[in-house]
C-alpha cells in the first residue's frame, strides 16, 4: 500500500472519481488529498466507522470531499 497522501486518497476513491482526480494537476490532487485527510481527522463519525473498517472510513471521507466539489 502506498504511503503518500495522494496515493492513499486515490485508493480510497470510487473508480470514476479516481479517474477524474488523476486527470487533474498534481497540485489540485494534493489539495484534495489534504482535504480528505482533514475530513478524516475532524469528523468524529468517521472515527467510529474507522474502528469498524478503516477502508470504509477512508472511502466515505473521499466521497465527501468529491461531493463538496459539486
UniProtKB/TrEMBL annotation:
Annotated source species: Streptomyces chilikensis
Composition bias, Basic and acidic residues: 14-30
Region (Disordered): 1-30
Protein name: Addiction module component
Tree of life domain: Bacteria
Amino acid at each position: 500500500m502506498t504511503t503518500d497522501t495522494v496515493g492513499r486518497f486515490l485508493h480510497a476513491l470510487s473508480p470514476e472519481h479516481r479517474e477524474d482526480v488523476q486527470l487533474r494537476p498534481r497540485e489540485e490532487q494534493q489539495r484534495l488529498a489534504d482535504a480528505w485527510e482533514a475530513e478524516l481527522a475532524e469528523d468524529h463519525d468517521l472515527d467510529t466507522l474507522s474502528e469498524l473498517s478503516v477502508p470504509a472510513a477512508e472511502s466515505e471521507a473521499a466521497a465527501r470531499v468529491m461531493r463538496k466539489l459539486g
